[in-house]
Amino acid sequence: MADTSSIDLYFLLFGGTITFLLLAVGLFTFLLQYQKRIIKQDLAFKDAEVKHGQELYLGTLEATEKERERLARDLHDVIGASLSTMRLQLSDLEHKASQDPDLKNFSDRNKELIDQTILEVRRISNDLLPPGLEEFGLLYSIEGLCEQVLDFSDIDISLEVEEATTLNKQKSLIMYRIVQELLNNSVKHSEASKINIILSNKDGQFILIFKDDGKGFDYSEAYKKRSLGLKNIEVRAKMIEGSAEFVTKKDEGLKVEIRIPV
């Protein structure tokens, strides 16, 4: 009986390992396809901006966001659910193999790997689909972005709301992407220790002020080179009839002011 039980456990172990490897290959293939699709959409996005102006641009933007939403839901519903099921199976295997140190060690290692993968899937899903934007509004989603930065960096972030306002879905989404771009730039390039974000509503305009105390840059030089980050922010603001003003110098940080009609 002991030999039969041991064979069954190792059979479960072998089957679980094969299943995990197949799922890992499937996840890698899925992410590769998603990356290609996003690149393709981004190229279409830039082409639409140059050739056809605001109407086609916004249509392409909407298509891109729908693709992001579909991929995010696929990641959450399909990949996330499969990983959770695998974790349950490993927990069951660990219970059955409680007297076998080798199997328990194998189970612990793989549960940790699955947990890390689940967190990564969740992070990618949140990057693709702004969490809570439709349900709870722009402020909630911006708070989520700030929390993500606080989780993996030492930057101190201050978020001030001088006067709350409600934007429609299109404007909220574009403002969310602008804040996302600004935060990413500060984290990756500015070497900032502090970021201050101010949201206000004055004279029929929604105003976003973003400041960091980073190393700054030569704005004229960056604009001549058509820095992709600056261009994305400026174009997104213009597409909702807004404006973007950049104030920066080398070693003097960055201030960006976005104004859009409410």
TrEMBL record:
Membrane-spanning regions, if any? Answer: 12-32
- Single GO MF annotation: phosphorelay sensor kinase activity
Keywords from the UniProt entry: ATP-binding, Kinase, Membrane, Nucleotide-binding, Phosphoprotein, Transferase, Transmembrane, Transmembrane helix, Two-component regulatory system
**Does the keyword section mention Signal?**
no
Keyword set includes Transferase: yes
Q: Mind telling me which PROSITE patterns this protein's record contains? A: HIS_KIN (PS50109)
Write down the Gene3D superfamilies for this protein, in alphabetical order: 1.20.5.1930, Histidine kinase-like ATPase, C-terminal domain
**A cellular component term (GO) from this record?**
membrane
Which EC numbers characterise this protein's activity in its record?
2.7.13.3
Catalytic activity annotated for this protein?
ATP + protein L-histidine = ADP + protein N-phospho-L-histidine
Q: Where is the Histidine kinase domain?
A: 70-262
Q: What EC class does the entry list?
A: transferase
Q: Which PANTHER family match?
A: NITRATE/NITRITE SENSOR PROTEIN NARX-RELATED, NITRATE_NITRITE SENSOR PROTEIN NARQ
The protein here is known as: histidine kinase
